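Thread title: Can someone regenerate the structure for this chain?

I was given the following input by a collaborator and told the matching structure tokens would be attached. They weren't. Posting the sequence so someone can regenerate them.
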Amino acid sequence: MLSLSMGTDEDWTSRLALEDLMVLPHFAFFKGRIIPYAEARVGVLTHGLNYGTGVFSGIRGYWNDDEQELFVFRPEDHYRRFLESARMIGMQLPLDQAQLTAALADLLRREGYREDCYARSLAFYADETVGVRLHDLTPEISIVAMPYGRYIDKEEGAHATISSWRRVDDNAIPARGKIVGAYVNSALAKSEAMRAGFDEAIVLNRDGHISEGSAANFFLVRNGVVLTPPITDNILEGITRRTVIELLARECGLTVVERSIDRSEIYVAEEALFVGTGVQIVAVTRVDHRPIGTGRIGPIAETLRALYFDVVRGRRPEYRNWCAPVYAPDAVLTETASARP
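Best answer:
Regenerated them for you:
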């Protein structure tokens, strides 16, 4: 890995280029069936490409070597939010969450992954036309999956910065859904942070309260109390966020308080964390060159990381219902969603 001490745009872009090298998929679920990835193409006039009129979902699969099984973590919850995000932009999709989950499982079996992976589902307006609108357009769905490891390299000790960019507001672009065009806001914050030598950004809302990371929910531990911004502070309604709240309550006896968090509270906190499907569980140990707590990963983050990775790999029977097996003979996810209404 390159050093965080970067002095030029060339250094920064070289680092991004290295991090962006990934293995492309062999297949894609596209137009209701699984086809070679190279054949899943759209025109340059596609509405979703020109105007960001789409929604997406990121779902992780975790390989359990002992069981020789790939577990997809909470797929139906992800696809429920995917469908809700679509409705926010007036999009009615032809598949329900069970059909989408089945299509994903078929795709993963076709890819044959026996390692951790990431699936990206996308619903977009596919018409090749010019004109800003959300009505009288035709949606299309695609799903791809690829091997995937860490999103943030320093999961045990990330260095974040308060972004100069503000989080999108619910009355501008709904932040609670995963709307494609809204992620330019995330990209501005992320690139600003990385160009300045940080690992991630912390984004404030228009009221100056902490909203989230560039693409992750945020938790803070202060005076032994775990805090997280409420959904009304323009955050994504995160699946991992819900998972963490439940795990902390059930396994650690900690009730998470959902309230607005001031920027200055970060500097007097014992711990801070990013959580999300992409980032997983990341301990934030410095913000703007100031140590958080001891400046090292704290006990809550350490405990939560160990617990979370056991849960997502299907090693905790009490949470097994969150883990959908891909290769098991009796796996529920068997029917492809090729028959479109």
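Residues 119 and 215 are 16 Å apart (CA to CA).
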